[in-house]
DNA sequence: TATGGGAATGAATGATCGTTCATTCTGAGT
DNA sequence: ACTCAGAATGAACGATCATTCATTCCCATA
C-alpha cells in the first residue's frame, strides 16, 4: 500500500471534497449513524480537517444539505428559465426528463434528500435551508404552467394547484424509487409523471 | 409534586405505552437524536424498562415503525375491503378522506413516517417492515381500481399505473404538509388528490 | 395476612463520538 | 536554497448514551 502523501489544496476544493464524502456516507449509512471519522476517511483525509473547514459536524451537515438543495432546485430553475428560446412544450419535456433522469434519481442523491426531510420535522434549520430554494422553484414552475395554460387555452385550470400536485407527485415517485425500487422502475415513474402532465395539458405533452 | 407511585401493569400495555412515547419523541426531536432516557421519561417510566420489554433500542424503534405502518396500511385496507356493502364511488371517497383526514395527517404521525423513510435507504430492515404492509395495501388499491375501471368502462386505463401514481401523490402531499405546511393546506391537498382521481375516474368522483 | 414471582428501578459501566490543539509538514514567495 | 504562514494531522479528552443487573417493591394467590 503506497503511503498517501499530505497535500495542500485551496479551501474551496477541500470543502467540496468533504461535502461529496458526506453525501456518499449519508447514502450508505444514513444521516443518523454518520460519524466524523467516517466522513473524513471517505474523503481520504484526517479527522481534524472537518473542524478546519466547517466548524462543527452540524455545520457540515447543513452545508451538505444546502449543496444538494441548490443542485436540485438550481437545475430545475435553469431548465425552466434558461431555455427561453425553446417552446413551452419542449421545456415541459425537459423538466420531466431532468426530474426523473439519471442525475437526480441516483440512489445517492435521493437518499440524502429524504434523510434530511426525515429530520426536517424536528429541525427547523433544515426546513429553512430547503424552503429558500424550494419556494423559488415552485414559483418558477407555477409561472411555466401559467404560460402553458394561456397558450393552450385550458379552461378552469389553476396553475398553482397543478404545480403543487405535480411537485408532490415527483417527490412521491422519488420516494418510491428509493424505498421500493423493486416495485417501480424509472421508466414507469416517467410514464406516470408524463401522464399527469398529459391530463392537465393534453396539447403540450 | 406528588411522588409517582410504582405500578405494575401487563406487558402488552407497557409495550404500547413505550411505543407511543417513542412516537412523540421522534416527532418532537427527530429519529436521529432520540435517546432511551428521553423515551422512558416521556412515558413516565424508568430507564431500565425499555430493556425489559424490548431488548434493545434498535428493537424498540423497529417495533414502533411496525406499529405506525400497520396502523396506516391497516386503516387503508379496512376501508377498501371492509365496506364491501358500499358502492365503489363511496369507497373511493372514504379512502381519500382517510388518507388526508385528521388521523393520518397529524404532524406526529407524518413526522415518524418520514423519519423512517429517511433512514430506509441505509437500513434494509426498515424497508422490509414497511414493504410487508405496503405491498398488501398496493394490491388492494389496485384491485379497487380494477373494479372501478370495469364498472366505469374507462378505456385504456391501467390500474397498476394509476395506483402507483395515486400512492406517490399521497406520499408527496403528506411530505408537503409536513415540511412546508405554510405553502399548502389540508383542504388544498384534498382538492389535488380528488382532482387526480377525478381525471382518472370521472364518473366515480 | 403472609409471601413469592416477577415487574420496575436507576446507579454504574463501557463504548462511541465530537471536538480540541500541539505538532508536523507543504509549497509559494523571496 | 531558505523561510514561514497556514494547511493538515491524529492522539487525547470529555461528554453522551445504550445497556446491564443488583436491588426494591407490588400484588395475586393462598
Comma- or semicolon-separated keywords:
9 helices; DNA-binding; mainly alpha; 2 domains; 205 residues; Tetracycline Repressor, domain 2; Arc Repressor Mutant, subunit A; 72% helix; homodimer
Element layout with pairings:
Two copies of one chain form a homodimer.
Chain A (H helix, E strand, L loop, with lengths): L10 H19 L6 H7 L6 H5 L3 H26 L5 H12 L7 H14 L3 H29 L6 H21 L6 H15 L5
Helix pairs in contact in A: 1-2, 1-4, 1-6, 4-5, 4-7, 6-7, 6-8, 7-8, 8-9
The structure holds a DNA duplex (30 and 30 nucleotides).
How is this structure best described in words?
Chain A is mainly α. Chain A has two domains: 9-55, Arc Repressor Mutant, subunit A, CATH 1.10.10.60; 58-200, Orthogonal Bundle (Tetracycline Repressor, domain 2), CATH 1.10.357.10. In chain A, 72% of the residues lie in helices and 0% in strands. The first copy, chain A, is built from nine helices and no strands. Chain A has helices at 11-29, 36-42, 49-53, 57-82, 88-99, 107-120, 124-152, 159-179, 186-200. In chain A, α1 packs across α4 (57-82), α6 packs across α7 (124-152) and α7 (124-152) packs across α8 (159-179). The mean pLDDT of chain A is 93. At the A-B interface, α1, α6, α7, α8 and α9 of A face α1, α6, α7, α8 and α9 of B. Chain B binds a DNA duplex (30 and 30 nucleotides) through residues 5-9, 11, 14, 35-37, 45-52, 56-57.
Amino acid at each position: 500500500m503506497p503511503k498517501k502523501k499530505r497535500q495542500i489544496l485551496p479551501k474551496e476544493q477541500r470543502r467540496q471534497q468533504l461535502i461529496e464524502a458526506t453525501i456518499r456516507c449519508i447514502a450508505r449509512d444514513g444521516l443518523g449513524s454518520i460519524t466524523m471519522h467516517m466522513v473524513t476517511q471517505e474523503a481520504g483525509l484526517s479527522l481534524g480537517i472537518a473542524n478546519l473547514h466547517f466548524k462543527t459536524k452540524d455545520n457540515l451537515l447543513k452545508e451538505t444539505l444546502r449543496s444538494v438543495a441548490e443542485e436540485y432546485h438550481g437545475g430545475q430553475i435553469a431548465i425552466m428559465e434558461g431555455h427561453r428560446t425553446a417552446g413551452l412544450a419542449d421545456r415541459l419535456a425537459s423538466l420531466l426528463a431532468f426530474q426523473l433522469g439519471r442525475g437526480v434519481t441516483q440512489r445517492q442523491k435521493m437518499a440524502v434528500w429524504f434523510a434530511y426531510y426525515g429530520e426536517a420535522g424536528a429541525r427547523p434549520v433544515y426546513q429553512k435551508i430547503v424552503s429558500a430554494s424550494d419556494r423559488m422553484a415552485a414559483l418558477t414552475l407555477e409561472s411555466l404552467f401559467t404560460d402553458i395554460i394561456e397558450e393552450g387555452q385550458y379552461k378552469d385550470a389553476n396553475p398553482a394547484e397543478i404545480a403543487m400536485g405535480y411537485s408532490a407527485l415527483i417527490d412521491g415517485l422519488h420516494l418510491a424509487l428509493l424505498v421500493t425500487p423493486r416495485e417501480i422502475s424509472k421508466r414507469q415513474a416517467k410514464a406516470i409523471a408524463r401522464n399527469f402532465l398529459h391530463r392537465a395539458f393534453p396539447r403540450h405533452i
